[in-house]
Write the structure tokens for this entry.
Amino acid sequence: MNMKLSTKYLLHIILSVLFFPIAFMVVNFIYYMTLTYVLNQQEHIYYEENKLQSSWQKDIASWKNKSTEDIIDHLRRTPDYRYSEIAWISDQGDILYASSDKLKLPHEPLDVSEIIRWNEQANHKHLVLAAYLQGSEARGYAYLETPRTIIGSQWEILRDRYAHFWFIGIFFVCALFVFSSWLFFARIQKRLVTLQKHMQKTDHDGIPRNLDVKYEDELGQVEHSFNKMVNELRNSKQKESEEAELRRKLIADLSHDLRTPLTVIRGHTFMLSEQPLTEKGKLSVQVINDKVAYVGELIDNLASFSLLAAGKLPLNRQSIDVVKVLRSSLSAWYPIFEQDHFMVEVQLEQSMIWQADELWLRRILDNVFQNVRRHAAQGRYVFVGTINTASGIAIAIRDHGPGIHSHSTRKGAGIGMSIIDMMCAQMELACTIDSHDEGTSVYIHLKSGKAETAQIE
Amino acid sequence: MSHILYMEDDLEIGGFVSQMLKQRGYKAVWLTSSHEYEEYVNEADMVILDIMMPGLDGFTVGQRLKVLNPQLPILLLTARTAIEDKLKGLEFADDYMTKPFHPEEMVARVEVLLRRFNKNEADCLELKHLLIYRQEKRIVNKQTEEEIFLTDKQFKIFDLLLRHPNQILTKEQMYENVWDQPYMEGDKTLMVHIRYLRQRIEHNPNEPEILETIRGIGYRIKQ
């Protein structure tokens, strides 16, 4: 079974070349054997042409000078002419005798040209023998018309009669050859299709499974190569995920190690604040606290950003009610805004379902709220709601701050915005920002529907 | 006096946190590793855990403690901020706080957890004109000394908000907690119950002082 496909094909061709003459001989052999058998079993009527001719000549000669009645009687009764048609036409063109109506022509007397034409017509299917018969009362040409199917040797007749069996036999052999060729290619095709289907079907890790190699031919080699490739792919994927895990751990450890001293600083500023301090001292403590919180946020954003940029932050998109997430996020942010004397306006009436990751959406909202708190504190206002835009419902978060482009003591928070953009893009959402001197509006909407800020409100 | 078992390997952080807890009147036992925590855990009313420390990590210790005693509140206090860590932590812990934290916020969360698990020794809570005995499900109007009777659902709503002091609970959270069913947007059931609850507990239900509505978000009880 480990034969090469090309060898198989060559063998197939050689066999079929040899097969034809052999098959031809076999068909002929069977055909003739069958005919011989049939010949022995049944009696067959046949007349050899020369024998018929000589007996006809002899009979005609023997009937010379007999009366018309006698001649007709002979013509009718001679056993050799049982299967033939006979016509005797006088010199004047009158039909003296006709064995069947077929020979009785529509008008009499006949002329020579008509008789010649009749002879020619009959010649294809019949053997026509003509002889001049001279009786005592009438004279003219006598015609003996014998079907050619019974003319010839017994063997010839039988062979002609059963010739279609021979053609059927040859056709069958040809069909067998075509079928075996088709079978050869159909098998190759089937294996190719199976291979192609297998390549498309991926396992749980996104890589196709190994193939079970049954034949060591060229296709088998392809299957071996495919298996090798799949194994390499699997190894590299595993290596990649190990590296990603290492990286994730490194970032997590780094972030942890940075946070520990920050916590200590925070603890000490707290202890300081419990001591009697001058106004200047209190302000310093507050600034330190503020900066500690900010560095903490930066570490967080940096860690998220590097994971996100490397595509290593797990994304789990499903149908979620955005309003529910917004409300839940707001419930945590409300006390913080309250503490900073913000007026919070909430308008969450329409429920809307998006295909998104809840954790990611919360992260986006956290970053937006953080920006509002950091950059728009002087406006003391934040609006959070869902609004209708020209092409669908969008989340809107507005503040009355000085706008993104104005000077802020905390420039560099751009990383927070980058995280928002990257997360939105991966969830097929879009974030549109409209910022001017009187405030900033952030709209988050489905990518297909572009929120046109001009038509909002 | 509530007993708090605190595990933290960083000496500086551990020092000021345990000092702070003691200042606030808790009996705090601080361990710098998880090696001998079993000795102290029986007395503890609450456990504060760091995640990365010598011996077993905070996740393992927390999970074991929760299996032994589900009624023991656990607060994770850690520098691990990744969302996966938070999710993993909150599978067993009752609260998750990341470093750097504001010491006062930490103390506030400790108090909330103790109250949620009824570990607070004060069995009577005073709120405006109300005296609330949560264990006995009894509410008394301090001024008239009359008892206020609430329906089962009303008490559940009130108790839920009391157990989460100063925290805004969304309509979804409250509905799902009290009725044990998913909330459908536009359902007015909760609003109706809140209205009846206010008629019982507020001086003037139209200007509520206890049960605060945070428009568009949910409800809150400040304590």
Remarks:
- Chain B has two domains: 3-116, 124-221.
